[in-house]
Specification:
By secondary structure, the protein is mostly beta strands. It has one domain (9-86): Immunoglobulin-like (Sandwich), CATH 2.60.40.790. 0% of the residues lie in helices and 48% in strands. The chain contains no helices and seven strands. A four-stranded antiparallel sheet has the order 1-2-7-6, with no helix packed on it. It has a three-stranded antiparallel sheet with strand order 3-4-5, with no helix packed on it. Strand 6 and strand 7 (80-86) form a beta hairpin. It comes from Halosimplex litoreum. GO terms for molecular function: unfolded protein binding. This is Hsp20/alpha crystallin family protein. Belongs to the small heat shock protein (HSP20) family.
Length: 102
């Protein structure tokens, strides 16, 4: 069963893997382009119908941790794109917690 997001795009963290769900009903897989560019997931979809009829979707998702770019996978079922972005185990989390002096 495919998870249908409540919004057009949703990001979840699940045991060392970020999952991005994108609701793209009515598109064919060939009309969807998924890329990892400058630490962002980009999703574009374009469908041209008859004269004056077209659908365009463009969205970027920032991911808060470095990911293993070689292990990224994507599936498209029942109108939902599901992209898995495994966290890079060698990368430390960005930033640090700062203690407040009393």
């Amino acid at each position: 069963m495919t998870q249908h997001p409540d919004h057009d795009v949703e990001l979840y963290r699940d045991d060392g893997v970020y999952r991005v769900f994108v609701d793209l009903p009515g598109f064919d897989p060939e009309e969807i382009d998924v890329a990892w560019v400058h630490h962002r997931l980009t999703v574009s979809a374009r469908r041209t119908g008859g004269p004056g009829s077209s659908r365009v979707f463009d969205h970027e998702v920032n991911v808060p941790r470095a990911v293993d770019t070689e292990a990224i996978t994507a599936t498209y079922r029942e109108g939902v794109l599901d992209v898995e972005l495994p966290v890079d185990p060698g990368e430390s989390p960005p930033g640090r917690r700062i203690e407040i002096e009393k």
